[in-house]
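Here is an idea for our session: we take a single protein and study its fold together. To get us started, please write out a protein record for me. Start from the sequence, derive the backbone structure tokens from it, and show both lines together. Go ahead whenever you are ready, and we will take it from there:
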Amino acid sequence: MKKVLIAEDDKPIARALELKLKNSGFEVQVTENGQEAMDKAENENFDIILLDLMMPVKDGFTFLEERKEKGIKTPVIILSNLSQDGDMKKAKELGAADYFVKSNTPLLNIVENIKKIV
């Protein structure tokens, strides 16, 4: 079973993603901030990470920078409401495999994209 880490501080969105992914056959863990996500990414094996950019304790950009420094190879998909081209470009430069604007993207599209990557 493919394992997904969701780093999302918006509880309703995190829960909806968790349910959709579990119903699609994934094992899922949820964290509410970037530091929790980094701790899990360092100590457990995941097939993919879904990462919000605006989170408490450690934001998504900092997570991506540390992920790169620490040599963590797990693919990351950004799920954010930041829709500026500069944010998307920065996330991709820091190694994000894909970038979705949450308010514009149905959950089914996110699940389908995850299946293509893992």
Observations:
- The first strand starts at residue 3 and ends at 7.
- The domain at 3-117 is CATH 3.40.50.2300 (Rossmann fold).
- Residues 32 and 72 are 20 Å apart (CA to CA).
- The mean pLDDT is 93.
